[in-house]
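DM from R.C. (forwarded with permission)

"hey, sorry to bug you on a friday — could you get me a structure for this? deadline for the figure draft is monday and I only need the backbone to look sensible"
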Amino acid sequence: MSLVSKHQHFLHLVSSAHPKQAFQLLKTSSLEQVNSIGELFENILQSYITLSPEKLKLFRTHRQLVRQIASRDLKSARRLRLVYKHYRIVRKLLQSFSYDTEDGPYPV
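My reply, with the result:
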């Protein structure tokens, strides 16, 4: 969760921005920021973060992509290409997860 908490504002920006803006944010992001998306998805897959059944349904629909992005075996450059290619799905998944807490948009 360290990368997620470090880049929580970036994740919130990507989830709340217009699709074209989200793409540009992802395009100009660092590898560490993209890896924070992978870490967030990994935490969801390992049930460290619980989601409602409606939100889980969305993640199950795109489970292959979520598993690929969350994979620790995947090199950062490949993860970056996957996020670019499927940025609309990634943005939708982040939107389904985002909510505001006292500490920020994501639990830390």
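R.C.: lifesaver. The chain has a mean pLDDT of 86.
me: no worries. The radius of gyration is 12 Å.
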